[in-house]
Amino acid sequence: MRAVEVKNLYFKYEKEWVLEDINFSLEDKEFMAIIGPNGGGKTTLLKILLGFLKPSTGEVKIYGKPPKDNSQIIGYVPQHTNFSLDIPITVFDIVLQGRLKKGKFFYSKEDKEKANEILNKLKIYQFKDRKIKDLSGGQRQKVLIARALVSEPKIVMMDEPTSAIDPTGQKEILDLIESLEITRLVVSHDIKILLRDVDKIAYIHKKAVIHEGPKLNIPKDKHFCEVELIEFLKDESCGI
Predict the structure, then answer these.
(1) Taking the mean position of all CA atoms in its chain, how far away is CA 116?
(2) Where in the numbering of this chain does the ABC transporter domain appear (predicted)?
(3) Kind and range of the H or E element at 174?
(4) pTM here?
(5) Are 70 and 62 in contact, with CB atoms under 8 Å apart?
(6) In 33-160, where does DSSP find H-type helix?
(7) pLDDT-derived band of residue 51, with 50, 70 and 90 as boundaries?
(8) CB neighbours of 45 closer than 8 A, spacing ≥ 6?
(9) 9-18 — which CB contacts under 8 Å span 24+ positions?
(10) Percent of the chain with pLDDT over 70
(11) Whether 183 contacts 210, CB under 8 Å
């Protein structure tokens, strides 16, 4: 069963079409990067895949079911810039939120053990009792990733996970994403993500152009600006 399947997807806000004829699929444990210009429809597509928005027409399946019917297996990592730092909450409490389910009002011993396990795995256990406002941007992003992973999802979807983070933090986050052994779908303006071992790239600008691997043949030792990278992909016959 495919992890993600999108067929003939169209979406419009009022009278304006934002996405047109989007088609792609993603296999279990594959890694897809979604790139494209501002206003091109990347975030809208992510919201549809998460079940936050409903397609105008077309079909979206996450492991064989509509996103809303399979939300329990989806981990979501929002931009840390959208997270309120005014809330006096600890790292451990934020990560535990990932174990909450509908109708559940307390955390079990297993929940707390799983949270500790994830904090250790992501090497942020030492921040367990700190307030989220006291962490760096990269550390906060790891906390949000930990919250998504503690629910033991089959697929994780991330929105700009390296935005507003220093270069060292960006590398740490990209290393972490690349190491995960689950299906990953990442919306990003950071073209450095394309230098990782992504299996597929979706270039979204109202319509979608998909470049498929199995691994992209992008030189790891060359610096690209966005225009140069898009031109390189075009030369590699991805059609962007």
Answers:
(1) 22
(2) 4-231
(3) helix 167-179
(4) 0.86
(5) yes
(6) 42-50, 91-96, 109-121, 137-149
(7) very high
(8) 9, 19, 22, 34, 187, 202, 204
(9) 9/45, 9/48, 9/55, 9/57, 9/58, 9/59, 9/60, 10/55, 10/56, 10/57, 10/58, 11/41, 11/44, 11/48, 11/53, 11/55, 11/56, 12/56, 17/206, 18/44, 18/206
(10) 85
(11) no
b (16+ CB within 10 A) / e for 123-139: ebbebbeeebeebebbb
Say if strands 57-62 and 4-13 run parallel, antiparallel, or are unpaired. antiparallel
| Residue range 156-168: mean pLDDT, rounded | 88
Question: Sorting pLDDT into bands at 50, 70 and 90, what band is 24?
Answer: very high
pLDDT, position 218: 57
How far is the C-alpha of 71 from the C-alpha of 76, rounded, in Å? Answer: 10
Query: How many of the other CB atoms lie within 10 Å of CB of 69?
Result: 12
Tokens found for residue 172? 């740490």
